């Protein structure tokens, strides 16, 4: 395990080529509000903040949860490489036996890096690797007890002028031992030059168990090239839970 974590830290800190100077930055590309990571990198020397609010309800379990300021900070170090930090504050309420228990605190700290591997060419999708570490920081109820590495491949295909297909495959060390697997597939559609929509299927499985799948859908709107507003909602069959989500992303400078 120590060797794996040392290798992950090297990958987080090692740039992958400096490339040539970038042209005018494109419109903002984010990793929210869907569950899928995009294969696109924040432009060099640009800072991007993506933050939002999510409410989750699992009626059968008596669970209500508020994820406040779920924030991802991203900075482009080169045309092929960005670093990122993710953090969230969670407040969870569970009803049972006539009582309500409330737990609140930080739900861990994630540090990582996204590395652009190659552009889309014919049948070959645009692809990036996301390498991150989930650190034991925050409330013990939500945060891991030790550092957990994760590796994710983010891929995207252009289907037409209006449609695109993004998909992820990931593995993450689980506690106390074993691996968790994750997949997602998101169909995006351009509604107008500034507005878009998506529908997505995703799921996860722990230690070789069955996948627990969920579906979500949402809308995005870009009032400026460097600003995105979003909203989404989803449902998970495994625990009959649902969620609503809203947020904003800003890239600086434009």
SS summary, helix count: 1
Question: How much β-strand is present in the residues?
Answer: over 45%
Major beta-sheet overview:
12 strands, antiparallel, barrel
CATH architecture descriptor: Beta Barrel
Form type: globular
Strand order of the largest sheet: 1-2-3-4-5-6-7-8-9-10-11-12
Q: Give the helix proportion (percent range).
A: under 10%
What is the CA-CA span between the terminal residues?
41 Å
- Total of domains: 1
Mean pLDDT, nearest integer? 89
Q: Overview of this structure, please?
A:
- It is a single chain.
- With 254 residues, the chain is mostly beta strands.
- It has a single domain, classed as Lipocalin (Beta Barrel).
- The chain is built from one helix and twelve strands; from the N terminus they run αββββββββββββ.
- The radius of gyration is 18 Å and the shape is globular.
- Residues 15-20 have low confidence and may be disordered.
